[in-house]
Amino acid sequence: MDDKTKQPLIDKLEKCMLDRIVAAGTKEGGPDLLDAYQLQAFIELQYYLKVEHDFQADEVAALLQFSDPLAVAKECWKERDPKKGFPICALLHRIDAYKRFPLVTPAVCAKENADQLQALKDRIDQNMSDFQAELLGMDKMEIIAKSAKITAMQESHAFMKEDYDFTPVEVSLLLGMENPLKFIADKWPSDLAGFLDMDDQIREALDDAARDAVFHREAEQSAPPEVKAAGQAGKASVRDDLRDKMREAGQRLPSEGKAKGGEVR
């Protein structure tokens, strides 16, 4: 991401850091050792975000919605898996950030989130229309062979449009995909028991997608030039691996859980 795009967030993070320094310095009785340790942790995180973190557009947009994005980022940092990088959007969902931390202007954020959700549902509709158009170009035997895929696409479309309760972070993650409907359909369960706890399965899939995206991006950036060149030819395999992982997750039987409303879809 270019510096100009992320600069508003960098400026806000710096202001949050300066506010903390001022607050510690003007504290009645002066700062204590605990204050110093806390400031050091915030300073190190603020420096990392400014200089080292490879921000994505959805991460910048998400953090800018919070009154104190540095505090939110610190909580995300505590929950990260160092082996998986720092997938901020996935971590925002994990820490339930939109309920725990104050937003800049809740009304404006609500409007933006609603617009984003509608854009996602429009994308899902377009994905379904494109899939149906593809079917119309097939003969009867080809369509029969795709019967399981057709069912998965139809059920996924209905579930994501009507039943799934999206978080703002999940909307951002799915809008970053060219075909979010296919992403969900590829993990759609093939057996009746697999429909239990679909919400949990989808959220787990989105968390994995965000972590894997960060892992592959950081691996590419740290690789030698000749390895990067070879990796360009294999980029399509990343999506295939993720698709296989989602399908495997969809076949798992949850140890606990009930279908929404006490029924199985």
Topology of this structure?
Elements lengths: L2 H23 L7 H20 L4 H7 L5 H11 L8 H7 L2 H4 L5 H31 L3 H6 L1 H17 L4 H8 L4 H6 L12 H25 L2 H9 L1 H17 L14
Helix pairs in contact: 1-2, 4-5, 5-10, 5-12, 7-9, 7-10, 12-14
Describe this entry's structure for a reader:
This protein has 265 residues and is mainly alpha-helical. It is 72% helix and 0% strand. The chain contains 14 helices and no strands. It has helices spanning 3-25, 33-52, 57-63, 69-79, 88-94, 97-100, 106-136, 140-145, 147-163, 168-175, 180-185, 198-222, 225-233, 235-251. The longest helix has 31 residues, at 106-136. The chain is elongated. Mean pLDDT is 79; it is low at 231-236 and 249-265.
Summarize the structure in short.
The protein is mostly helical.
Strand content: under 5%
Rounded to an integer in angstroms, the radius of gyration calculated over CA atoms is 22 Å
Major sheet details: none
Structural class based on helices, strands and sheet pairing: mainly alpha
Mass-distribution shape: elongated
Number of strands: 0
Distance between the termini: 41 Å
Helix/strand order: HHHHHHHHHHHHHH
Low-confidence regions: 231-236, 249-265
* DSSP helical segment count: 14
Helix fraction bin: over 70%
Compute the average pLDDT.
79
Could you name the key traits of this structure?
single chain, 265 residues, mainly alpha, 14 helices, 0% strand, disordered C terminus
